Amino acid sequence: MNLRTSHVILIVLLYGLGYPLGAMALGELSAPWVLSIRFVLAALLLAGVAALGRRRWPRGREWGHVVVVGVLTQAVQFGCAYEGMRLGVPPTLTALVIAMNPLVTAVLAASWLGERPTRRGIVGLALGLAAIGVAFAGRVSATGIDAALVLTLLALLGMSAGGVYQQRFLADVDPLPASAVGQFVSAIPMIIWAAVSPPDLGDLPRALVSMGAMIVFSAAVGTTVYMAAVRRSGAARVSLLFALIPSVAALFGWLLLGQMPSQGVLLGLIIGAVACVVGGTGAGGAARTKVSLPHSAGAPEV
After folding, report:
1. pTM of the entire structure?
2. Entry's Pfam families (predicted)?
């Protein structure tokens, strides 16, 4: 099923905004403390909204699958990405690596879900990678492979695996309560990590403002919209939107952090937009038709 325009706009803007907000928070507080606060408050917010709206919570075996998705897309992705940024990876480079999500998702979906990218999907993926390369070629060439970059790559793997796992096992689960559960479960390892790490507190008001915005826009709204989009349109198709996010993150970085976007970033925005238009209608065969999958662990048909 095609992506909704509202999903496209919200995912691109909210995920793009999340990187500079995360960098602002990490400048005033250590990664495990930022993520502990983020996950706990976001879980409470989402759970409250789900309860007021009488949304359906996971049942039976769904709980285990929701936990797996939450750990992969929240704890692994953000724990590794934020620690990578703390070790020196700039937020724009983090956005660049995470934007490789379409490629990794397509590989995982092909091997796990039986999805075969169409010709338009392949062209869209190629254009998306070109957009990433054009936008951040200078930054990538100046960065070597170190522990920080490895952590950022692990963040990418966590997000991609979580998206495909969700499509495989949670196609019929309401994304709002599922997101609340994922945030809560992910808070547990972050709290343990924070307990053995110094907070490195800097400017408290700045930290609170950046974390508050991050919790509302990225952790709560952004995550829920992403899960809803995967549920509606499939992981491979939704992941194409990440071709746009690095350039959008750079623009927000300019507004919030004073980092002026280069001509390459602006060109990346254009190429990324074309990638979404071309690939959005052909990300994978399973995005349009159901694929029969083995019925293990209560897995639904996708």
Report:
1. 0.76
2. EamA
